[in-house]
Amino acid sequence: MTHESSYKDKKVITIGVVRELTGLTERQIRYYEERKLIFPDRTSGGSRKYSFTDIELLMEIAEKIEDGVQTFEIRKEMVRKKKKEDEATLRKKMLQGQINAQFGIRKI
Q1: Kind and range of the H or E element at 26?
Q2: 41: β partners
Q3: What are the residues whose beta carbons fall under 8 Å from the beta carbon of 39, sequence distance 6 or more?
Q4: Residue 43 pLDDT more than 50?
Q5: Which of 37, 41, 93, 101 has the most CB atoms lying inside 10 A of its own CB?
Q6: Which positions ≥6 away from 23 have C-beta within 8 Å?
Q7: Number of helices and strands in the chain (H, E)
Q8: Chain segment 12-37, per-residue pLDDT in tens
Q9: Residue 58 · residue 38 · CB < 8 Å
Q10: pTM of structure
Q11: Left (φ > 0), alpha (ψ -120 to 50) or beta: where does 59 sit?
């Protein structure tokens, strides 16, 4: 599911605000980035920028860490979830293509 135009996915929030909203330290947030669990954008000056979706993800990660789940296990789960989402998107596009072909609908 993609939300490119959604406000939730716009990377506009600084690490300081993320820290306040999540209760995580800047060190924890950077660590999750190092472990490839979160992917902030960078400004031309190098500052990290996060989205509301990133904040939600950070909260999920923090809960799992609290429950004793290791970062590599979280990463594996994220990769599996992304693969499933990609497969579902591809399946949907293929079905839409078949429907369009059946009814003679062409995309412009």
Answers
A1: helix 26-34
A2: 49
A3: 33, 54
A4: yes
A5: 37
A6: 62
A7: 4, 3
A8: 999 999 999 999 999 999 999 999 99
A9: yes
A10: 0.75
A11: alpha
